[in-house]
Amino acid sequence: MDRVEIAALMNHYFATVARSLESIAAQEIERLGASQVRPDFAGVHFVGDKATLYRVNLWARTIFRVLVPLREFYCPNADILYREVQKISWDKYLQSHNTLAVSCTGGNQKLNHTHFTALQVKNAIVDQQRRKFGQRSTIAPQNPDLLVNVHIQQQRCILSLDSSGTSLHRRGYHPAMGAAPLKETLAAALLEIADWNTSLPFLDPLCGSGTLPIEAGLKALNIAPGLWRQKFGFESFPDFDQELWQQLLTQAKKERLQQLKAPIWGSDRDAEVLTQARSNSERCGLEHQLQFSQTELAQLEAPAGCGTIVCNPPYGERLGVARELGALYKMLGDIFKQRFKGWTAFILTGNKELAKQVGLRTSARFRVYNGAIACTLLKYELY
Fold first, then answer.
1. Domain match, 198 and 331 both
2. Which helix (H) or strand (E) holds 244?
3. Residue 79, number of CB atoms within 10 A of its CB
4. 326 in Cβ contact with 349 (< 8 Å)
5. Torsion over CA of 214, 219, 223 and 229, rounded to 10 degrees?
6. Which of 4, 100, 321, 347 has a CA 20 to 30 Å removed from the CA of 48?
7. Cβ-contact 228, 286 below 8 angstroms
8. What are the angstrom distances between the C-alpha of 322 and each of 222, 318, 319, 350, 357?
9. 32 compared with 174, residue with greater pLDDT
């Protein structure tokens, strides 16, 4: 196969990611075999073949979805948007018996409502279908055969196919959630930022429904996070390669390790959320690997001589009241200092005043976003 033929098999993709995690996601995508990897605002551009597209969807722990750009064009208003969308031959990607949905992000002065913009794109597609074939696709907001993404930025529009379907943070193991759950993608990113060595013990003393210990378990056992998903968007693409996909799935299952190198613990005072955590770990086959215990923070003791702590205590935005949480943060600092010598601890917080209550000197600070909340991951070396 010559270089021209190889180039024809390559495609440009865009992975969407939470703000502040672009460089972490770029490193991960590069490890998965992509080329020309380039971080951008809330996303990462990369190039690869079909196997790369499938592999990134299956294995990436820190991204939301992978878009396949179709066209980029000048788009100041709704009329031009409709006309430009109709220039695409949609029967290459969609038949009238397939279901369709359109999502929209961004906007400009004339296209300032995402629902309206999505509706314009949907109308342009189904009107073309009616004109060509006398039939049109049914709109299915949940789990469509084809999900089209439209992104408006200033006077430009990028139209893409969504190869992921539902967001990749929805691993499939997490139907049971705590009151303020941490997204799986952010939990995985925190483990990367913390540079956690899977040969070291891991503890989350405020584990809630178990997202951090579970993501730690998936990482430590080299388990692809996409293995529990029912379906990916690319499985409905006309050029879907079933044989290639099965090879990648088989390979992923073979690469799973059977035993942790070091224990992973999660504890919480709330018996109900621990029941959720155990249920979630069971859904991804980690019930015999992770250790969950009901423990009051005041009774917490170091379960080993060294290790890594990562925790996400409430910070008053959604759970609790900020001024009532100061005692919790002070207790965290006291317990880490007195009982966890030899460990490295990380606390994610969205409240600077609460962070001061920990009372320990940070060795590093990392800016991250938990949804729309600007947070800091604080690192403490405990000697």
1. yes
2. helix 242-254
3. 11
4. no
5. 50
6. 100
7. no
8. 38, 10, 9, 10, 11
9. 32
